[in-house]
Design brief:
Largest sheet: 8 strands, antiparallel
Number of strands: 18
Helix content: under 10%
């Protein structure tokens, strides 16, 4: 991860406190609701721990920032590891933006969804939803990569491509804060929009990294291999 130059990297390895430290900069998140810190990590051969979310009121909130969402993005990659207690309920693992523009990774009905949308400066394909089945109690590596200049939004699970949507462009500036482990303010699902907070995740999340570049399939596969 470090070798590929993440813009923001929340390792989620804190043992106590309310600060989710940005390992490469100063865009720290805040643990809200008392998630369990110091849970078993999801990366092999690494003593760094993860965070366990109870599905009731836990979330990591991150303020809007030019490092991630304000000012727009042409290339952007979201990478994380998760292990969900159940995959049936709708649960947000990561989301940035609101109902007009944004990116999200969430669970629903036994599937993992990768989402991207820009309604304010419409993409030729305004909304994109790609999904793939996942199982509860299994550690997964998920990556969502925006290639605006190339007109693609790419989804990867466990180092393998599970979707590539065309008709995509640069993603305009989008606010409404960032949520890890729950919806933080607003987002968009394949069934429509939602506002407020909720759709809370149950399970562990680890190693959330954001890049202002489009990681290619070779690097994504290498990250997954290193993690297992």
């Amino acid at each position: 991860v470090a070798a590929d130059g993440p813009t923001v990297w929340w390792r989620l390895g804190e043992a106590s406190g309310t600060v989710a430290d940005d390992n490469v900069g100063s865009l720290n998140g805040t643990y809200v609701g008392g998630p369990t810190l110091g849970a078993a990590g999801l990366i092999a051969h690494d003593s760094d721990t993860s965070v366990s979310f109870d599905g009731a009121n836990d979330v990591v909130t991150v303020p809007d920032s030019s490092l991630i969402n304000t000012g727009g993005r042409s290339r952007h990659t979201i990478e994380l590891w998760f292990n969900a207690t159940n995959v049936t309920n709708r649960q947000v693992i990561y989301e940035q933006g609101g109902t007009g523009r944004g990116l999200a990774i969430y669970l629903d009905g036994g599937n993992l969804y990768f989402a991207g949308w820009d309604l304010n400066t419409p993409w030729p394909t305004t909304t994109v939803f790609m999904s793939t089945p996942v199982t509860a109690g299994t550690t997964h590596h998920a990556v969502l990569a925006l290639d605006g200049p190339g007109g693609r939004l790419n989804a990867y699970l466990d180092g393998v491509s599970v979707g590539s949507a065309t008709g995509v462009a640069n993603l305009g500036s989008h606010g409404s804060d960032i949520g890890i482990g729950a919806m933080n303010d607003a987002t968009r699902f394949h069934t429509g929009t939602a506002t407020g907070s909720g759709f809370r995740f149950t399970g562990r999340i680890d190693e959330v990294a954001i890049y202002n570049q489009t990681l290619n399939p070779t690097r994504i596969a290498a990250h997954h291999l290193a993690g297992i």
